[in-house]
Amino acid sequence: MKFTVADLLDQLPAEEPLAVAKLEKALGLSGKGEKEQLAIALAALAKVGVLTQSDDGVGRVQDEGLIEARLRCSSKGFCFALRDDGGEDIYIRDHQLNHAWNGDRVLVRVTREGGRRRSPEGGVQCILERQTTSLLAQVEQQNERLVAVPLDDRLLTTVELPAADAEHLKPEGEAVVEVKVDRYPVGQLPPQGHVARSLAINAGPEAALDLLLTKHGLRDRPAAPRATLKAPADKERDDLTALPTLLLQGWSGAEAPILPAVSLETTESGQRLWLHAPAIAERVGFGSALDLVLRDQGEALCVGERWLPLLTPALTKAAAFKAGEAQAALSVALEIGPDGALEHYRFSRSTIRPDALVDDKALQALAERKPKARTTPAALKALKDQLPLLEQLIALADLLHQQRLAAGSIELDLPLPAIAGLGDLAIPEPDESREGWLVSLDAGSPMGLLRELVLPAHRALGRHFAALELPGLFATNAEPDPEAVNEVAKAALALEIPLELSADGNATAQELAVAFAATDRRRVLQQQLREPLQPVLLADAPGPNMLAGEPLAFAPWSCPGLHYADLWNQHLLVLLLTEGKDRPSVRHKTRVDIAGDASHGAIDWPLLAPSQITPLQEGRSAALLHRLNARSRFAAELRNDAVAMAQARQAEPQVGQTLTGVISGVQSYGFFVEVPPTEVEGLVHVSSLKDDWYEYRSRQNRLVGRKNRRTYMLGDSVEVVIRKVDVLRHQIDLEVVLPEGDLDNADAGEEPGSSDSDEA
């Protein structure tokens, strides 16, 4: 089918019905068969109460009881609907899934309200959009049925295959296939599919990349439409080519996104930081075919030592910054006070000429250089004239870093492990994380330095759009749930971690982050703290972004090669700078500088004509926000999957070896152990603990033996043997190394294992 239910519903206005002919046009349906499919879909959706049909057209039912959500299932069969509105997750029992799969976008109705320590329950009423169109699987013969068993055990199903696919039957672990889904389950009919191709499991880095791309549906990306790029206009463009400017090179992978350039000036009241972003929006027409494709892709995706770029090669080549070459840019001048506070700002269309490129080797050489050294290290010779500027930028970044932390931003010392092949995956993005916390970075690294200079630029545009009431895309990050944070604090106190709580007995996430950083169980405690932190979400209304230490509004714009949201905000910024009205009419002689914060509170007339602003107002829909937020989650899942696969491959040669790890999680069924240096995580199942019967004490994050009182506690060091590695499923089976004589069970009739207990 050419459209999904989500596509259909997104076209329906909130108030009045839409004629079927207009709906067909909006969905791009022209053939008789496509229109018949639409008619069937409309009849079915009307029957389930999602929309209404009348002579006037099709309208969406305004039912507050229907909640849009995304399904998240576990291999144990538990499924939750994660609400798009940020409300409490809804538990979905298997008989209420109505054939929905993990990752599907659905409409859910609550059937039982939640209570203390209990989630609300509900059922799937309608599947809006399928997440899985193809999957990695192994072919099995189950009685009379030939089926594909998904490698992803969160897909709680098998897929029927035609008899011809029996040629792909292989012993477990020897082959994996890509299966295309031909029919999703309907009524009593199971899903059907066919084997598209076989894939190699252990055939080197390229084969591993093929597995990753196939698993996430990225192997056959659609080609971008042909487009003639516009040339940025020279009129009313500030000439900043004489301004000393540096490029910070954080990534080295093939087709890595373009990053901003930076400059710095000293003023009477402090410093003026310049951030220059590549002028992508001036080359791509808003709403053009290319713009819509970029909007649909949403994100540049890193897969290790190469990228799946967001921008086309021609667009990247046209807009890229190069040392010694003049290039069009969008710039902002940020007035930074002595305390690191953002005091004033002004945006402009500009032309810059970067003077030099700064990479990791140069920053490392600068950090190691002795203060009074007369010689210049080889890595710094090309930067000899720019060294004073670079040192000033590093000092400013340190100041901005301290100011951000004081404003409530949370950093965790949880970098990705140093594994060969991870490439740019190991280097965080410079603008901001989507996960509600930032990985600790030194200003002596290119990305650590660039991050602190980018964040205030995004804070400035967020405040500007909010003050002028313009339809930007705002990145919001709410405070974490206090109750969830307190649960982490209780777990830390049970581990005898010293904490200073407030008078009401509560702790903030930032206080916990600081306290955990000073303990020997830092890593595992910070991993626990990640859970309650709220993700960064794009919204159509300004709001706080605690991640950036911004209480008012935050609008990303300087990395359009990374995120489409940045390109959207660039479109709006360029429109404001080129078409915005700086006075009520031509009869007024006094103009207002609408490019900077001096205009706030001084404008009482429409800044843009309706014909100019309406396309952005209409385009900034709930569907767009959902799409971009979903693509952001997808990019994070892809990154995590790529890292887990790399870690599992590193663990394969260590099967049978005894290693020392750290307990990173404790559950009733066993405990997880992280093994350095790759930080690969494996499970010690409770059934492998033969020396005793173990009780699970959830409040204390530990397992305790009934007889020998041996404990396995969060953060403990433990010796383990790697017994099995499943690279495709990223599962590592571990076994604890016990001292001699500890396998003698005193009670002959009692089987070792575990039981749940919350005793203190």
Summarize, please.
The N and C termini lie far apart (57 Å). The protein is α+β, with helices and mostly antiparallel strands.
Biggest β-sheet strands, sense, barrel: 7 strands, mixed
Helix content: 25-40%
> What value does the average pLDDT take?
91
Q: What is the number of helices? A: 15
**Rg over alpha carbons:** 28 Å
Report strand %: 15-25%
Low-confidence stretches: 745-750
Shape annotation:
globular
Number of domains: 6
Structural class: alpha+beta
Number of strands: 34
User: How would you write the strand order of the largest sheet?
Assistant: 13-20-19-16-15-14-21
Report how far the terminal alpha carbons are from each other: 57 Å
Task: Jot down its keywords.
OB fold (Dihydrolipoamide Acetyltransferase, E2P), Arc Repressor Mutant, subunit A, alpha+beta, 7-stranded mixed β-sheet, 6 domains, globular, 760 residues, single chain, 26% helix, 5-stranded mixed beta barrel
